[in-house]
Amino acid sequence: MAAPYSRNDNILRKKFYQYLIPTVLMVLAMQFGSLADAIVIGNFLGENALSASSLALPIVYLVQLPGMTIASGVAIVGAGFLGKRLVSEASKAFKLSIFLAFFVSLIFVPLGLFLGDIISNWFAGNFQELAPMISQYVKVYCFQSPIIALALVLAYFLPSDNSPNLGALLFVIGNVVHIGVEIVFCLTLPRDYVMYGVAGSFGIGLIAGMVVFFPYFKSKTRAINLKTPFKGSFVFAKDILRAGSSSGLLIALSVVYCLVLNLAATSYLTSGEMPVFAMLSNISFVIDLFIIGIFQVMPSVVSSLFGEKDYFGVRAVTRRVFLIAMGVTVVLMVVSIAFPNVYLYIFGVNLDNVNNELLASPKADLDPLLVMRIYSISFLFYSLNRFFSYYYPSLMINAPVLAGNAVRVGLAGPISVYFLMMAMGVIGFSYGVIIMEGVGAIATITWVIVGKKTKHYSGKGLLLLPYTKKNEGVVDLSIPANSNEISSIIETIQTKALELSHDEKASAILALATEEIIDNIIEYGYKRNSHARYIDVNLTRTEVGLLLRVRDDGLTFDPTAYKADEDEESKFHGIELIRKIASDFKYLRVLNTNNTIMEIKIA
């Protein structure tokens, strides 16, 4: 009798939330660090300083370009290598990313030193009184760019290597220190030099956060071998840059977009509109605070599952990410429309002062709260574009995101925002952002649809996965971690293996190995506790034979490394048998689960 089970995502659901919580905390800390500058500056230093920090955003994005590109790329490439059980390649890719991130970022140091004042005067436009504050901000961010790059690579890669908590801890520590130091600087430094301290506190915090690298060295779940020779690592540079290209392009286009935005703001906005513009410029940090941590699960988890060709798992994780993120976005949008004045309190902007400034200008009838309500409509499109930007690169499919971001940030954004601000002022900015985000989402979806029609993509639906659910593995099922149904499972494995191979001996061997692996997991991995515990079993046909993958969430145990003493009455004799009969026998701890893989060649 065939086993009555089908595949479920009980193990993956548990892993999803184990990764989601620390990843959300990491991004909360990271994004709050960006948001904290605006909050602290607005509340401690006033509206002019808030406007200055907003006008400096192009440089803030620019100095993050190398680090974010390489960090995003190595998170995807490293997770993919680990999913394929290529530990040496993952180790080399990680070490290369550290090298590249640091030395490429050094180019910004002379930029800040020699061109900081010139850049700042240009950014200030018609508001030259802001230029000295912008200059301090620009120079310090350029000087600390290598520190930012190293922290990004470390934080983004750690979740791929079974250490999501450490990635989160880096930015939690970093931003606690950052905010504390920033407040101290705001209270103690002379007003003429305080922006040096505000910008520098970010780098000080990151240095403090990188202390997590020491427990990572000692981690027992670390798959990366830091002693792997660096020689031959540069061959992975292309893969890393390709995987991170969508993030890199987005940041590069964001720099251009911010420059156009600043030009429009400093040319066409009145002094009363400028604080409203500064708030709107920072609202994206508020949205990212809540949703990016959800999306950030995908580079680590989805890339690993895709590397294993576990398409069921990819769908299960992706569906959960999308539903949670969009649900959060809807809540944020409703709250922002109902209570737009919350941003006034967050950024320390006095509505009465803004209205008085507006009354003395041609924009006397402008309602700042209406401007923010209109801007809130863009949240849904923004989240959808963010989803695309994380999902497709996780599959090493970059073209849809590159096309969408090129249209969104490189074309629709600058054009719509510039001309609408020129015609309508700050309210035109809100309308322009809605157009930009909506056009970007349409462009990405259109690219995927056209790619499928032209046979450039062979996957199904917008997820572009190569198989329908019914064809994912000849056997793809989940069983409770108890011994009641083992005989039925073994019968299913043997029957399907025989259908594929027409080799009775190979089918019998595979069934025996499956029984042995499952027995060991139930007996020792779960320590006889089968409550809400499952084992995933997948059998597929390869070019050379039959491939069996067994995944469990039990105690860490590498059967390939087990060696029984000759005089020992071993509980794992079956493992020795598997070694003798399998043409390939591997183990890897991925996503904090045990993955045991064996292959039997068929003549």
- Let me know the largest β-sheet: 5 strands, antiparallel
The helix/strand order is HHHHHHHHHHHHHHHHHHHHHEHHEEHEE
Tell me which oligomeric state these chains represent.
single chain
Proportion of strand residues? 5-15%
Work out the radius of gyration. 27 Å
Give me the number of helical elements: 24
What does the average pLDDT come to? 83
- The helical percent reads 55-70%
- Going across the major beta sheet, what is the strand order? 1-2-3-5-4
- Using DSSP, what is the number of strands? 5
Task: Label the overall shape.
Answer: elongated
- Structure class: alpha+beta
Q: Low-confidence spans: pLDDT under 50, at least 5 residues? A: 567-572
End-to-end Cα distance: 29 Å
What does this structure look like?
By secondary structure, the protein is an alpha+beta fold. The protein has 24 helices and five strands. The protein has helices spanning 10-45, 47-55, 57-83, 87-105, 108-124, 131-143, 145-157, 164-188, 194-209, 213-218, 237-243, 245-268, 273-295, 297-307, 311-338, 342-347, 351-359, 368-376, 379-394, 399-424, 426-453, 486-501, 504-525, 573-581, and strands at residues 475-480, 534-541, 545-552, 584-590, 593-601. It has a five-stranded antiparallel beta sheet, sandwiched between helices. Strand 2 and strand 3 (545-552) form a beta hairpin. Helix 15 runs antiparallel to helix 18. The longest helix is centred in the first third of the chain and has 36 residues, at 10-45. The protein is elongated.
